[in-house]
Specification:
Elements: E1 2-11, E2 14-23, E3 28-32, H1 39-47, E4 54-59, E5 62-63, E6 74-77, H2 89-99, H3 104-117, H4 133-145, E7 151-155, H5 163-180, E8 184-188, H6 191-197, E9 200-205, E10 208-213, H7 215-220, H8 225-230, E11 235-245, E12 248-253, E13 256-262, E14 271-276, E15 282-284, E16 294-306, E17 309-316, E18 319-326, H9 327-333, E19 340-345, E20 350-352
Helix pairs in contact: 2-3, 2-4, 4-5
Length: 356
């Protein structure tokens, strides 16, 4: 368990303050916030690379606030992986155990075990310069986990990866956490990443943790406008699953029944979050007979220009959606705030997110 109590850290004129935050054993917590919020500073302070001016950090009940990094038994995976370029993958992974002067045979056994779990046994003789971004990330996580840390801290671990690799590593982290049940704090600015990975999310803005809760709590009941702003795009819709059949789930939101696809079958009656990209919403003045299974009669609440596109804020009771349309469509439809329009989107456009 990681316990943060009344913590204050200063870096130049910037200050972070965290009154209370607890990450339980086996929990995968995500620290989410915009760039410059202080997320990395917070992570570095927990790891022991920065010294707070007040407050306490406890790891499984032990006060580690003034201990150096090597005495905390915490693993830190920085954004750039920080692999030793002159060492092959085997030696990079084994590095932490060798520092602890572990017996050579035990080191060899553990390296092979973690390499097998991470599916990188074929990379052990290669050097970091020859690895892809996804391979480097697996090696960095293997090096972090091999010392059996009390917790692992990951700073934007997916940010340097292309979309395909990012999704592969994200899915692998979910698999790995279920298998090993390690305690983690994962930093990101991406709300979808936070939802899919975290069973707890902490929101940090301007150096302060403003809200901590489950993904459902954070995204359906933000404490203030600053927290709500973080997940303004894409549309994230909360609802209850009332029917599941043939790859389609029906989620109920107020008096609406919306059809959505899923990659992991949801449980009937469960609360879920679904994602809908603004560009997948079609706006029309009249009810259209199309293949779209979801059609909502909305009121235009706000119109904003975004480069060559027009952002249309739509409202249906408490549900709010943002749609993006071309300038040509905007002019043809003669849209104005207060006008009633139909918003339609396919079931394949509304996807239930996989949550832990």
């Amino acid at each position: 368990m990681i316990e943060i109590d009344n913590l204050m850290v200063k870096v130049g004129d910037f200050k972070i303050e965290v009154n209370k935050m607890i990450v339980n054993n086996g929990e995968y917590a995500v620290l989410m916030g915009p760039s410059g919020a202080g997320k990395t500073i917070f992570l570095e302070t927990i790891a022991g690379f920065r010294t707070p001016i007040k407050g306490e950090i406890k790891i499984n009940g032990k006060n580690v606030t003034n201990l150096p990094p090597d005495k905390r038994n915490i693993s830190y995976v920085p954004q750039n992986y920080a692999l030793w370029p002159h060492m092959n993958v085997y030696d990079n992974i084994a590095y932490g155990l060798k520092l602890k002067k572990i017996d050579k045979e035990k080191v060899h056994k553990k390296v092979l075990e973690i390499a097998d779990i991470m599916e990188i046994k074929d990379l052990l003789n290669r050097y970091p310069i020859t690895l892809s971004g996804g391979e480097k990330q697996r090696v960095a996580i293997a090096r972090a986990l091999i010392i059996d840390p009390e917790a692992i801290l990951l700073d934007e671990p997916l940010s340097n990866l292309d979309t395909k690799t990012k999704n592969q590593i994200k899915d692998f982290i979910i698999y790995l956490h279920k298998k090993l049940e390690f305690t983690a704090i994962h930093v990101t600015h991406n709300p979808l990443e936070a939802i899919e990975l975290g069973n707890k999310i902490a929101i940090m803005i301007k150096g302060k943790v403003l809200q901590v809760g489950t993904p459902i709590e954070i995204f359906t009941n933000p404490k203030n406008l600053e927290v709500a702003w973080l997940h303004g795009k894409p549309n994230i819709i909360a609802g209850e699953v009332i029917e599941v059949k043939e790859g389609i789930a029906i989620i109920k939101i107020e008096d609406l029944n919306l059809a959505a696809i899923y990659d992991k079958k949801p449980i009937l009656g469960s609360k879920v979050l679904a994602i809908l990209r603004p560009e997948d919403i079609i706006i029309s003045e009249n009810f259209l007979k199309t293949s779209a299974r979801n059609i909502i009669k909305c009121v235009i609440k706000e119109i904003n220009e975004k480069g060559g596109l027009i952002s249309i804020k739509l409202g249906y009771n408490t549900l709010e959606l943002e749609a993006l349309i071309t300038r040509g469509s905007y002019e043809d439809l003669k849209l104005l705030p207060g006008k009633e329009v139909y918003a339609s989107f396919k079931a394949s456009a509304l996807k239930i997110l996989t949550m832990k």
